[in-house]
Amino acid sequence: MRSNKLKDFIREEFIGLNVLVYRCGIKSLEGIYGNIIDETKNTFVIETGNKRLIVPKAISKFLFFYNGYIIFVDGKLINKRPWERIKIKIVKKV
Fold it and tell me: Which region is the signal sequence (predicted)?
């Protein structure tokens, strides 16, 4: 996904998206797959079946399933309030 598309995705609402916790500093949360039902500055609340788990953004890496794409996002990039993500600058590495 090109950086401008990633920037557009980062600005989207994450509540309602399916997500996989790809890596996490809390090993028991790795591999969690579910639906984001709430978001704060530092966490996602992910519903997996009959459980609701709180996953910290800053120590996690996520795979989002969005419009037919699988998007990898480091949680450090989105460790902000939803309305603060609009100001995120994405720089291409060359």
Answer: none
